[in-house]
Amino acid sequence: MSKAGEKTHFAWTGQWSAEEQSFFCIGRNITAQRQLEQFKQELMEMVSHDLRTPLTSIRTGMELILEGTCGELNDKAINKLNSMNSNVSSLVRLVNDLLDLHKSEAGSLTVLKETIAIEPVINNSIHAVRALADKKNISIITTCHVETMIADADRLEQVLCNFLGNAVKFSPDGGEIKIEVNESPADIEFKVCDKGRGVPPHMAEAIFERFRQADPDNAIERKGTGLGLAIAKAIVLAHDGTIGVSPNENGGSIFWFKIPQ
C-alpha cells in the first residue's frame, strides 16, 4: 500500500552475493504496468461488446435489405448499400484483428486441432477474395496434393485469407496467383505465390510484426492495419508451425507456412 492507501505492485528479484556472502532483494515498482494491462483488458472488452456486436447487427441488416427483404431496390440504392456494407465489414475485420492480437499477446489465442479436409479451407479462402480478384481480372490457381490434416480449419482460413488478400491487393491487373499445398514426412506446407512487387529482403521478418508494412508510404498499404500478418504468425505458432516469405523466381513473393504432421 502507498501512503495514500492505494495498492502498489512490485516485482521482486533475489540474488546471492558471493563477495559479501549475503542474499539481497531488489524491488521494482510495476504499478503503472499493471494499470496499463488493466486498461488494455477493459478496452478489449469494450471493443468486443460495444463495437463488434452492433457492427455485426448493422452488417446483417444491410445484407437482408440487399436480398430484397424490404422490397425492390434501384441500382443507385444497391451500389450505396454495397459500399456501406463493405465499409462495415472492414470495421468488423479490424475489431476482430484487434481482439485476436490481444489474445495472442496474452497467450490465450486458442486453436481447435482436429482432422480437417483441406480443399474446403482453400475454397472458402478463395471465395472471400473472389470479388476483388474478379474486379482486377486476377486468376487463382490451386495445386493441392494433400487431402486431410490436423489443424483448426477456421484459423487456417484466416491465415490463407490474409495471404490471398495481400496477393490480390498487390498483384497487377490480369495477374495470376497460385496456391500450393505439399506434404513431407515432417509437415504440410501451404504457399501463396504472386507476381506483385515483392517484399524487400530486409523486411522479410519485420512484416510479421504488428503494425509493420513493407512500404508504409505506399498508398495501397496505408489502407491496411499492419495487423494481418502478425495475427497469421500467431495462429501458425499456436499450431507449432513456422511462417515466412520468400522471393518468387518470376518476380513477386511466396508467402508460406508449415504445420507439423
List keywords for this structure.
about 260 residues; alpha+beta; Helix Hairpins; Heat Shock Protein 90
Helix-and-strand structural type? alpha+beta
- Ranges where pLDDT stays below 50 over 5 or more residues in a row are none
- CATH superfamily of the largest domain, by name, is Histidine kinase-like ATPase, C-terminal domain
- In CATH terms, what is the fold-level topology of the largest domain? Heat Shock Protein 90
State the CATH class of the largest domain: Alpha Beta
DSSP helix count?
A: 6
> Order of SSEs, N→C?
EEHHEHEEHEEHHEE
* Oligomerization category of the chains in this entry: single chain
Strand content: 15-25%
CATH architecture of the largest domain: 2-Layer Sandwich
Record field, number of beta strands? 9
Give an overview of the whole structure.
The protein is α+β, with helices and mostly antiparallel strands. The chain folds into two domains: 1-109, Helix Hairpins; 114-260, Histidine kinase-like ATPase, C-terminal domain (Heat Shock Protein 90), CATH 3.30.565.10. It is built from six helices and nine strands. It has helices at 31-66, 75-106, 118-135, 153-170, 219-222, 228-238; strands spanning 10-17, 22-29, 114-117, 139-144, 148-151, 176-183, 187-193, 242-247, 253-260. The strands form three sheets. It has a five-stranded mixed sheet with strand order 4-6-7-9-8. A two-stranded antiparallel ribbon has the order 1-2. The longest helix is centred in the N-terminal third of the chain and has 36 residues, at 31-66. The chain is globular, with a radius of gyration of 23 Å. The mean pLDDT is 82.
